[in-house]
Amino acid sequence: QQGECRIDRIETREPTYRFEAEGGVTEFWDHNEQEFRCAGVSFHRHTLRRNSLLLPYYTTAPSLVYVLQGRGTFGHLVPGCPETYESESGSEREGGGEQERERYGEMGRRFRDRHQKVGQLRKGDIVASPAGIARWVYNDGDEELVLVALEETSNRANQLDENPRSFYLAGNPRSGGEGGQQRQRESAFRHHGQGGRGQPEFGNVFRGFDAQWLSEIFQVDEETARKLQGEDENRGHIITVERSLQVLSPPHRGEEERYRRGERRQYGGRGGSSWGN
Amino acid sequence: GLEETVCSARVKENIDRPSRADVYNPEAGRYSTVNCFTLPILRFLGLSAGKGVLHENAIMAPHWYTNAHSIVYFTRGEGRAQVVNHRGEAVFDGDVNEGQVLVVPHNFAVVKRAAGRRLEWVEFNTNHDAMINTLAGRTSALRGLPADVVAAAYQIPREEAQRLKSSRRETFLFQSDAGERSRRIA
Predict the structure, then answer these.
(1) What is the ipTM for the molecules in this complex?
(2) CA distance, residue A13 to nearest chain B CA (Å)
(3) Do B148 and A272 touch (CB under 8 A)?
(4) Considering only CB atoms, which chain A residues are within 8 Å of B143?
(5) How many CB atoms lie within 10 A of CB A19?
(6) Residue A137 near residue A48 (C-beta atoms within 8 A)
(7) CA distance A231 to chain B (A)
């Protein structure tokens, strides 16, 4: 926008808004600061505690994420792409029984699922997320997973204005802690005279739809439809997972070797992958 | 080669013919698109279009366009639509009728439903290859999530998560249970 880059002085910036959630915290830099507006970007940092899940969401602009610390699993939900990560076929299912119980231990039998490709995250990774593509992140490491993300709101892929917007597909993102526990730094007041103007906004898109319609669309009861809407939710946008997630994920090279040699281990290893590292 | 690219470019495509439908469900309706692949000049224009027909009580799955605004003109019939913003607020929840225009901004989620009569519309999208992402159905975002992620996100048992993922076999034109019931009564 005209005049945004008439900069006389540049300062280092600290996060302005802080949103606490059950499983972690997201800090936003005020995108209304002149430098950010000039560059046409917004910046934020997610910190996911162990065993926490950043709920699926999409943004109006493309983003680049850098993994500052920790490890995790992530997925992009690309429209039209098939669910290429799938557990055993139906024929194998029939022959399960005792053998399966032996193989998968306490779980009795392996839960079958089919979903889109997932990836592993570790320190130093850059992840590119296109605009409008939903994504999720799960911390399956043994320390906090910290991600810093740049969203280019001025990118031509973003057809809305330059305010960053996140559309969540679950939960009640603004409910984590007391009203999101925003911390508005002095600078936000100084520039706008009202702390809230540059505040990021996000919510669960299912909430805007009629619960009865959702129940019909998903062919589930209304109670489940209300769960889609995140009613009575207070975990925020990063949630703690009770037991570790079972996500289908291919093994690392060493693990594959061991698998070939028949050194199988029980399903449900670290990060939900089938085989240990 | 201007004359080879622009002067002789095909500029017309009929998307109203039922036999031309890209998505078709005899119970629910049909949907056709024209984009830069079917009409290459649209790449220059940065626009695309779609034509939708929903039979009585049928539903078009909740969806969002990942890369375009959508300007919907209702050509026939009556129905209802809901549009939701990033805060999860319904910015539109009301009846839609022939002759009306509904603007659905980029990334806002929308669901449409035909009322007693079938609902038809033409939509203009501000991208030459507008991409749709659905929230329910066989190719939906929910379907692409691991069942455990669905279970954790919505606080439901794994089996329920699996049901939620796979309840609808259709892509995005759904026959309504209400419609089915009224047909049975008739």
Answers:
(1) 0.76
(2) 26
(3) yes
(4) 83, 115
(5) 27
(6) yes
(7) 10
Rg (CA), chain B: 18
Q: Which two structure tokens, joined as six digits, stand for B120?
A: 């038809």
Q: Does B68 touch chain A (CB under 8 A)?
A: yes
Q: For residue range B78-95, what is the model confidence (pLDDT) as tens digits?
A: 999 999 999 999 999 999
Which DSSP letter does residue B2 get? H
Q: How many CB atoms lie within 10 A of CB A1?
A: 10
Question: DSSP string spanning A31-100?
Answer: TTSHHHHHHT-EEEEEEE-TTEEEEEEEESS-EEEEEEE-EEEEEEE-TT----EE---HHHHHT-HHHH
In the Cβ-directed half-sphere of B22, how many Cα atoms lie within 13 Å? 14
Which residues of A fall within a CB distance of 8 Å from B93?
Answer: 208, 210
Residue A209 tokens, joined: 């739809």
Nearest C-alpha neighbor of B62 from the set A175, A227, A204, A35: A204
Comparing CA positions, the residue from B118, B18, B24 lying closest to residue B78 is: B118
| Distance between start and end Cα atoms, chain A | 50
User: With contacts defined as CB-CB under 8 Å, which chain B residues touch A158?
Assistant: 106
List the end-to-end C-alpha distance of chain B, in Å, as a whole number.
61
> Which of A54, A67, A69, A50 has its CA nearest to residue A19?
A54
Answer yes or no: do B145 and A241 touch at CB < 8 A.
no
HEC per residue, A192-243: HCCCCCCCCEEEEHHHHCCHHHHHHHHCCCHHHHHHHCCCCCCCCCEEECCC
* CA A79 to the chain's CA centroid: 17
B142-181 confidence digits (pLDDT tens)? 999 999 999 999 999 999 999 999 989 899 999 987 655 5
Task: Give the H or E element holding residue A18.
Answer: strand A17-21
CA distance B82 to chain A (A): 7
* Nearest CA distance, B48 vs chain A (angstrom): 15
